[in-house]
Fold:
Amino acid sequence: MGVRIRLALVLIIFLMLLHPAWARDGDDMRVVPAREIMDKIERGEPVEYDHVIVEGDLDLSGLDLPKRQVNRTRLEIEFMGCSEDVTLVSSRIRINDSRFNENVSFGNAIFGNEVDLKRTQFINNADFTGSVFDSDAFFKGSTFNGNAYFWGSVFNGNVTFKGSDFRAAAYFLGSVFNGDISFMESVFTLNAGFWDSIFNGTAEFTSSVFKRDANFLDSIFKGDAYFGNSTFNGTAGFTSTVFKHDANFWNADFNGDAIFFGSALNGEAYFVFSTFNEDA
Structure:
């Protein structure tokens, strides 16, 4: 192989590493109108895309889909804006390594099949308020540039946000996780709100970074909770939090206030090698 060919190959590899394929706007990222996806959901068809740019608002509220009447609390109706008429979505949804350029409004819905949005960018807000995921949900490696609204959501299967990047506020107020949940190695740039949430399975936050406040006020962990190697740069709020099994904060860094006032630690609590740089 000649010297020029070797140099050309090295240059090509370098450019690929510098600008990965999923982030490019060019050759291998097809533009898909949001209407195309909504039409498939309306017909109950599987939604399967890789390496696409979704243009336009993706909104379930105006689709001709069956409804189910559910009971909502006053908080869900008046504060979260949920309706007691919930949209039923039967489509399996898989959109990987892609980008949503506009708002994604998937709130107030029941997803009967798997929702897989791994390694996908949400440029604007992602709204899943009051939705129910009856199967597994995958958000692994995704990036939320706008606010992520999951308050009042129910996850009946396992769900992973492992390695996700929340660049705006992350709202999980009053969410229920009936399976295992993973936020391992995730980054929360602004406030992360998990207050009044219920974790019925294993809750995995190992090696996560909370750059602002992390609020778990009045939350209940019924399975093991892992926060080892995590970093809390703002207030770590665990006021009145209940840990019914083990709570692992091994080697965690608390650079702001660490508040565990009124918390119940019913299992083993591990704070070995943790650092507290403010009040605790």
Observations:
- Residues 10-26 have pLDDT under 50 and may be disordered.
- The radius of gyration is 21 Å.
- The helical segments are 3-18, 34-43, 74-79.
- The chain is about 10% helix and 35% strand.
